[in-house]
Structure formats: structure tokens, C-alpha cells
Amino acid sequence: REHLKNIPTLADNPIRTEIIEAFFDKRNQHNNELGSYEEIGFEEFLMVMSHFRPPSIKTSAEERVAMRKQKVCFLFNMHDTDGDGKITLEEYRKAVEELLSESGSIGQEGARAIADAAMLEVASTNMPNMGPDDVYEGITLEHFEQILKNLEMESRMYVRFLDMNTANLRCGK
Questions:
Q1: N or C: fewer beta carbons within 10 Å in the chain?
Q2: How many CB atoms lie under 10 A from the CB of residue 173?
Q3: Would you name any one GO CC term (predicted)?
Q4: CB–CB of 114/96 below 8 Å?
Q5: CATH classification code of 1-158
Q6: What are the domain boundaries of the chain?
């Protein structure tokens, strides 16, 4: 975690903590385990980085669908911090507050109100027949996929390595 915290460009990201924790989340290692690693090795690091691989010109339609599914699951896992299969109102509030508080123009209460209104909108869309006493448990992966269905992320959710002299790049000790 300390190594990732020392990446200068990551320091400016409002969801830096979620990104770093995603590297240690066992769900992102394609083995469907719950929990978190204390530290990760090179293979685990690469497994998480694979979620950020952009499609190439040769990527087939089926591969694009699979890449999208992996990226959506990765994003979902990032915000479902307790691993219960739902992004709860509290988890959603935390993400919205972190994103909006970085701008400085909206305070914590304003961010909280925006998160609450957005969650209410999601609830009414995903469960249109909710009664006044019904409780919306949270956003499931299925609902999350539906929310993001029109967002083109396959070529946007990627990592670029800028200003790197690859001649001096070595792996290992």
C-alpha cells in the first residue's frame, strides 16, 4: 500500500484510497474469494492492472464484452467495500463525498444530499413499485451494469505510462 501511496499522480485522485484498496481486494484476482491481502506480489499487481488494458484494433466483439464485464465488476468491487454484493447508501455516500469534496465547492452536507438523491433515483429506477415502507438495500452488480450500460468505458478506463524511459526499465531485483 505504501508503494502505491507514493505514486505522485495517484495522490491527486479523489478516489485514491479505493483505487489502492482495489489492488488488495481478492475479488479482483479472478478467483471469487472475499477478503483482502496484506501485501501483493508482482502477479497480483499485474492481475489488477489487466483490468485497465484498453482494447486493440484486433479485439473481437466477444472479447470487448468480456473486457467490459471485467471493468464493470472491478468498479463495482471498488465501491462495494464490505463485499456483500451491494453498494449501500453509506458506501455510495462515501464515494460521492470523496469525489465532490475534492472540488472544494461543495461541502460534506451538499455531497451527502446529492448522494441521497442519486440513490433514491437509482432505487426508483431499479424498483419502480417500491412502497413507502420498502427499503432499498443497495445497488447490485446487475443494477450497476444497467446504470453504466450507455457509458463507453472499454477504451477510457485504462492506464497510460507517460514519460517513461523503457530502456532503463527492469523487473526483479
A1: C
A2: 3
A3: nucleus
A4: yes
A5: 1.10.238.10
A6: 1-158
